[in-house]
Amino acid sequence: METQIDFLQWLEPDMALKILTCLDDSADLIRESAVSRCWQNIVVSNGLSKELCVRKYPHLAAVTRVVKQSYDDSEPSHDLGEIEHRAYASLFRALKSFPQTYCIADPVSASSTDRYPEESIMNTLDPRDKILHRESYWSSRGSDDLEAPETLIYNLTAKLCVITEIILHPFQALFQTDYPIYSSKAVRFRMGHPKSWSELDYDFMEAQECADDKFIWTYTSPIFPVAWLSMLQRFKLPEPVVCIGGFLQIELLGRVQVQAADGKYYICVAHVQAIGRQLSPAFGLEFSESSDSVSLKYDADQFAHIMKNGNNSSLSTSLLPVQPPRQLAWGNLQDFLHMVQAHPDGVEYEWVDDDEFEMV
Fold it and tell me: How many CB atoms sit inside 10 A of residue 119's CB?
């Protein structure tokens, strides 16, 4: 067997640290620190795993401390530096390798709604194009201003998610003359957390109030043009975005379609989804409003389980209409092809049985 030499032992500490900070992947740090006590001491004592995570995902800089969750009293204890190293090294892997899934849980508010609840934002998360023979979509109020924006806010499935793309389907009114498509001109996305978690107990949808000013948006995307077409449109973010807090705002910019009945411009959306990686239950966030701190909660057992077996959340056909109108048959086939093309690595789709829904 060849004798292995740890070259870091031959370097001055400052030079060794400079070499390690040039690495682009925490996997290199983890691999080497596992076999070299010298590497491990440098990595842990200088917080290099956290530094690499924050360098790749800058929004993680908001985390002020790490809390390890353990359910086994016999497990050996580690100092804070070692816990932080393990947590950030595992988080770096999770951000790139956890299974992709749909990440929107619930709607929070819409800046306006034409007719509530028939045209509520809630409809944008329903997989059906029709509910009880009525078209399913959200509609803004009408405006004379072509540039008047609208916003939709959603709660994500976890306070800590990494989002890679947003899917938006503008609504086409097949019940109106010429089948108009009420698209926006462009779209922009924001992610963040509430200014006060207690204020979210309020039902903004029922009260027909906009919740935009209740949030701190820590990420704002570029502006993407929206095609004036009734189809699923994918908006891939320039880089995966770690959402600290678990809330997504979709800002719909500009109007293109006038409604013949009143001469006003509307924006209508049929479906919305966000694709990314949900990091719970392996990782979670805890916000302290009194101290303005954010704690990263790390469960090593859950992390190991997900890395080995995946999780129960997986991409499915939840965006596809269950019982499409005859006029939309070709459009739905195009939507399906877009969904398949969105995930070239291969996804198992589960068809929804019509009997699971009340259709009359």
Answer: 22
